[in-house]
């Protein structure tokens, strides 16, 4: 009830009380008793209003106490970095903490009393995620027990966050649904660290393997290749088979070469070169392969940009990246290679293609040794590329969308601004 309403009820009741009781006293009470009755009714009125005021004050105190407790609870859950949401038995949101509202972009929405599917209308980006949450909640209800699961949520900056979600369904005594507590902990860093560790382990195994076997294979391979070529020239009628053998040997040679690049340790000799010149060389080198696939390479570059680098490694890096782009393209596809000043400290080389793109589920495996979607791929090109960029104190990012294309951004520090790792 509103304060103003209570006031009006009190005033109306008070005036009516005075008018009616005065009228009754005047009419029915003998004159000698009138004074006493008037006093009694005055006292009665004061006692009655006194009792009412007492109960109102008590109620206010109780409400203040509840408010204080609610404030404490709100402060507590709002200070949590985990996201927390309470929902009622019908899935309507009762309370959510700041992290939760921020995560789902519901900060300025009156969310209370609304279900996930209703809230989904307020956010385009998390529409699907909220609809999916409703399904997961239902599973938690059916499970009738605390459930833990791992969920991924897309983030507007294009990345993903991993959450460990705990759902606690609460039931009334009669077994009906009372409420659902949902708590989500951001475990992205842990996940990425695990993934990195897995990659590192694999990489170090590959490194060791390469170091021990690589050199042993390389030398005999060179002599076999030489003899196959000589035999091919002698036996003209079998030349076709010798050609195939040479090609396959070259493939083995290529794989061993890439493995050796991964092997540690490597002595690097850095000199100053213009990135534009190195990339231009590679573009013309790969032009034949592009022409064969009818792929056009568009090469754009700003003024000369000097970096300290190991030229052959850098060539290898751009061969890997541009080759991947050409291989991803269909006929009449386009590969754009652009060199620009990325920032005060870095040169930015962007290689973009309008090819097949990389399916989302494979994107996190990029750079992992031996991961390849190609029949004759080695799955070492990107691993080697990551290592080369790292050796040059740079960064490499891959953005890709299936059936749209892939964009690889390579940041390399300018001459004298590098901190090699
Ligand atoms: N530009 C690209 N477009 C589409 N897929 C790509 C691209 N670059 C890399 N990939 C994917 O990454 C995988 C690994 O690449 P890489 O390490 O160079 O090995 P390989 O080329 O031998 O398969 C490829 O098999 C391919 O699936
Ligand atoms: Mg490749």
From TrEMBL:
<dbReference type="InterPro" id="IPR035965">
    <property type="entry name" value="PAS-like_dom_sf"/>
</dbReference>
<dbReference type="InterPro" id="IPR036890">
    <property type="entry name" value="HATPase_C_sf"/>
</dbReference>
<dbReference type="GO" id="GO:0005524">
    <property type="term" value="F:ATP binding"/>
</dbReference>
<keyword id="KW-0597">Phosphoprotein</keyword>
<keyword id="KW-1133">Transmembrane helix</keyword>
<dbReference type="InterPro" id="IPR036097">
    <property type="entry name" value="HisK_dim/P_sf"/>
</dbReference>
<dbReference type="Pfam" id="PF02518">
    <property type="entry name" value="HATPase_c"/>
</dbReference>
<dbReference type="InterPro" id="IPR005467">
    <property type="entry name" value="His_kinase_dom"/>
</dbReference>
<keyword id="KW-0547">Nucleotide-binding</keyword>
<dbReference type="InterPro" id="IPR003661">
    <property type="entry name" value="HisK_dim/P_dom"/>
</dbReference>
<feature type="domain" description="PAC">
    <location>
        <begin position="147"/>
        <end position="199"/>
    </location>
</feature>
<dbReference type="GO" id="GO:0000155">
    <property type="term" value="F:phosphorelay sensor kinase activity"/>
</dbReference>
<keyword id="KW-0812">Transmembrane</keyword>
<feature type="transmembrane region" description="Helical">
    <location>
        <begin position="7"/>
        <end position="25"/>
    </location>
</feature>
<dbReference type="InterPro" id="IPR000014">
    <property type="entry name" value="PAS"/>
</dbReference>
<dbReference type="InterPro" id="IPR000700">
    <property type="entry name" value="PAS-assoc_C"/>
</dbReference>
<dbReference type="InterPro" id="IPR004358">
    <property type="entry name" value="Sig_transdc_His_kin-like_C"/>
</dbReference>
<protein>
    <recommendedName>
        <fullName>histidine kinase</fullName>
        <ecNumber>2.7.13.3</ecNumber>
    </recommendedName>
</protein>
<feature type="domain" description="Histidine kinase">
    <location>
        <begin position="212"/>
        <end position="416"/>
    </location>
</feature>
<keyword id="KW-0067">ATP-binding</keyword>
<dbReference type="Pfam" id="PF08448">
    <property type="entry name" value="PAS_4"/>
</dbReference>
<keyword id="KW-0808">Transferase</keyword>
<dbReference type="InterPro" id="IPR013656">
    <property type="entry name" value="PAS_4"/>
</dbReference>
<keyword id="KW-0902">Two-component regulatory system</keyword>
<keyword id="KW-0472">Membrane</keyword>
<dbReference type="Pfam" id="PF00512">
    <property type="entry name" value="HisKA"/>
</dbReference>
<keyword id="KW-0418">Kinase</keyword>
<feature type="transmembrane region" description="Helical">
    <location>
        <begin position="40"/>
        <end position="57"/>
    </location>
</feature>
<dbReference type="InterPro" id="IPR003594">
    <property type="entry name" value="HATPase_dom"/>
</dbReference>
